[in-house]
Amino acid sequence: MESKEVEFSFSSPPLSSTRWWCRDTVAVVTGANKGIGFALVKRFAELGLTVVLTARDVERGNKAAESLREQGLPNVHFSPLDVSKPASIQTFVSWLDTTFGGLDILVNNAAVSFNEIDENSVEYAETVIKTNFYGAKLLTESLLPLFRFSTSISRILNISSRLGSMNKVRDLNIKATLQNERLSEEQIEEVVNLFLQSVKNGTWQSEGWPEIWTDYSVSKLALNAYSRVLAKRFQGSRLSINCFCPGFTQTSMTRGQGTHTPDEAAEVGARLALLPPDHLPTGQFFLGFGPYNKSKL
Ligand code: NDP
Prior knowledge:
This protein has 297 residues and is an alpha/beta fold.
């Protein structure tokens, strides 16, 4: 069954009046040297959290963090992190442990797409899947022991896309597998491998995969499915896992096209990541912009 979208309201009190965090609250954002990730770091820092801006390129990352510190946000720290490289993840996790002793918020934002808006090549499918799905998954799994599980509730916000929604999948078997209540991480990886195999075979176009930005959509489909499984794994504990689609945003990924700016997308993302503990759901997919919607993952 497709999950039903319900309207979600942000008309609740302004962020500053629901403040549960403090200077010691640590938020990590991946792929944050530009775009939505950079805007999220800025917003978190303005709101007074300690923020770790990560980027795969040291120069770009340092420059981005420095520009925020120059804007009067000394609570922004940079650390290199390439989510597609397990060794880089390992180095980052031990740096975070040594430097801050843990974290409270993780935003898996880093992602790639190699297509122009109206293209659908799968030439770089492996890199897309490796970065957008496996990168977020491996980083999450590696950071799980460092979450503080405090009363304020630790949070993971996966920046996803409506292109990875279940209703974009046209193959009924794949859909049934992913929608099964007992879905396992192994089954998600099997679906991803099936897609990569169909790319190798040259059969992907006739197999009922999402029709737009297919490799990217499959990566986000897998990320959504993993988020659902993870939310179930941590049900009842002090860790919430949700996904957020920022909508069509003016960034490098869209070659500057979109209906709104990264700052506007980040405002909604920050509100979600910082929901008060007693209003924080888990296992939800939030659709920002347009009417705000949330649905079960
Ligand atoms: P950008 O291309 O502007 O930013 C992507 C960021 O990810 C860059 O900082 C990039 O670094 C980084 N990145 C790429 N690969 C890696 C890697 N291996 N390790 C670490 N960082 C990496 O795109 P957006 O800001 O638009 O995208 C942010 C998120 O929002 C993504 O998850 C995207 O899928 C999602 N999204 C965006 C939409 C939009 O309309 N823009 C719509 C729906 C979802 P570098 O500069 O080095 O390339």
